[in-house]
Amino acid sequence: MNHTILNTEIQEFINENLNSDTSKLILKGIPFKNIDSKLIIEQIEAKKKCTKKLPTWFNAKNIYYPNKLNIEQTSSETTAKYKASLVSGKNLIDLTGGFGVDTYYFSKQIEKVTHCEINTNLSQMVRHNFKALNISNINCLNDNGIEELIKNDKTFDWIYIDPSRRDQLKKKVFLLSDCTPDIKKQQKLLLMRANNVMIKTSPLLDLTATLKDLNYVREIHIVASNNEVKELLWILEKNYKGKVNVKTVNFNNKDSQFFEYIFEEEQQATASYNLPLTYLYEPNTAVLKSGGFISVSYKLNIYKLHQHSHLYTSNNLLEFPGRRFKIESVLPFNKKIIAKENISKANITTRNFPVSVKEIRKKLKITDGGEIYLFFTTDINNNKTVIVCTKAL
Fold first, then answer.
1. What does the pLDDT look like over 56-93, one tens digit per residue?
2. Keywords, A to Z (predicted)?
3. pLDDT of residue 127
4. Mapping DSSP to helix (H, G, I), strand (E, B) and coil, where does residue 195 land?
5. By three-state DSSP, how is residue 302 classified?
6. What pTM, to 2 d.p., does this model score?
7. Is 262's pLDDT higher than 70?
8. CA 323 – CA 254 distance, rounded (Å)
9. Less CB within 10 Å around the terminal CB: N or C of the chain?
10. Residue 339 contacts by C-beta under 8 Å, 6 or more apart in sequence?
11. What SS3 class is residue 363?
């Protein structure tokens, strides 16, 4: 960590050039001789990445940033706040602290928090930034989190761990056994040192397969932002024997959508089916990832269009964890019949349908956009159907 970067004139230069073309800045030359210009460019690019993702850091003075890749990989403040809402108690240890965004928000809920980071430079940055943010209840350790647990008999109310999803060649991995540290091997140690463990994993992990790898799972949280799944969170509780509660959340600019169900009850639940009625519902990505398709019908008392279509319908407009549409008409998948509707522009979605969106657009000569939404799907009678909709507010 080069403290020269925190000099007032350099900080002013960084702030003045957040919207500058960094390649042009390099060609023009950085007006500071006592520091590597690449470091200043790195600070500009990283800070700019924080504008919306990490506004607390962006708006604070004298924050030291890692490279922009590290910023891209860290939690957003939105997801970090959500994780913090799940914990309580006197002490928590973050075994893979990184840039410290999750640790920062854990410190709002927990009396004493420990931040472990094996990278010395990053650990120093985080320690400095916590001081700049006036946080005093976080202890920063430049150490491997797992090794810290092994050499120390201390116990915690919570352990948080976000295993690295890159191998030795820096290639992306997502299976638990391929991540570092290997959670499958370390979960016994984790539950020896804490009553509760929160594990953040890749959104790509299969829920059923991962439940076979982990013991004592109490909850699975599927966290999406603007309809993109960002994180899977696995809550382990020492000696827990109950059923697994799956909780989904989708944060967007207007509101937040929540849905939850009991994992083991999905197989026993029964869905109700019907042809398209007055309204159509499309689950958000967190719900789709959860696999609770029967539970959506059962818990919300809503009809499913087909076992494999994952679209729902009702006569009355209901609250729903996803998008809601008013059905204007229902057409068979027939080129001549669809052509009579004179639809030249529409938003197209396919669900349980054998033809791709690209092929449909080409075949029907429909461009993207507008206020009309077309859902190409299969109904309860196994008929290929086109549902013409508008947004339901």
1. 999 999 999 998 888 888 999 999 999 999 999 999 99
2. Methyltransferase, Transferase
3. 96
4. strand
5. coil
6. 0.93
7. yes
8. 13
9. C
10. 364
11. helix
Element (H, E) at 157: strand 156-161
| CA–CA dist 374, 348 (Å, integer) | 5
Is the Cβ–Cβ distance between 345 and 367 less than 8 Å?
Answer: yes
CB crowding 99-131: b at 16 or more within 10 Å, else e: bbbbbbbbbebbeebbbbbbeeebbbbbbbbbe
Correct CATH for 74-242 of 3.40.50.200, 3.40.720.10, 3.30.420.40, 3.40.50.150: 3.40.50.150
Cβ within 8 Å of residue 362, ≥6 positions away: none
Confidence of residue 179 (pLDDT cuts 50, 70, 90): confident
Q: What is the pLDDT of residue 165?
A: 66
Question: Are the C-beta atoms of 296 and 265 separated by less than 8 Å?
Answer: no
Alpha-helical regions (H) of the chain? 8-16, 22-28, 37-53, 55-59, 68-73, 77-84, 101-106, 120-132, 145-151, 183-193, 207-213, 285-290, 293-300, 335-339, 357-364
Half-sphere exposure of 210 (CA within 13 A, CB side): 27
For residue 141, give the 3-state DSSP assignment. Answer: strand
Which residues is 377 bridged to in the sheet?
351, 385
Nearest by Cα to 380 from 330, 308, 284, 331: 308
> What are the boundaries of each domain within the chain?
3-68, 74-242, 272-391
Under DSSP, the state recorded for 90 is E
Mean pLDDT of 229-252: 96
- Find, among 85, 76, 46, 80, the residue nearest to 63 by Cα: 46
3-state secondary structure of 361: helix
Is 61 exposed, middle or buried, given 0-12, 13-18 or 19+ CB atoms closer than 10 A?
A: exposed
- Residues found in the chain: 393
> Is pLDDT above 60 for 163?
yes
Provide the phi-psi class of 89: left if phi over 0, else alpha when psi is between -120 and 50, else beta.
left
> Is residue 41 within 8 Å of residue 22, measured between CB atoms?
yes
Residues 298-344 pLDDT 10s:
999 999 999 999 999 999 999 999 999 999 999 999 999 999 999 99
**Residue 375 C-beta-side C-alpha neighbours within 13 Å:** 29
**3 CB-near residues (< 8 Å, 6+ apart):** none
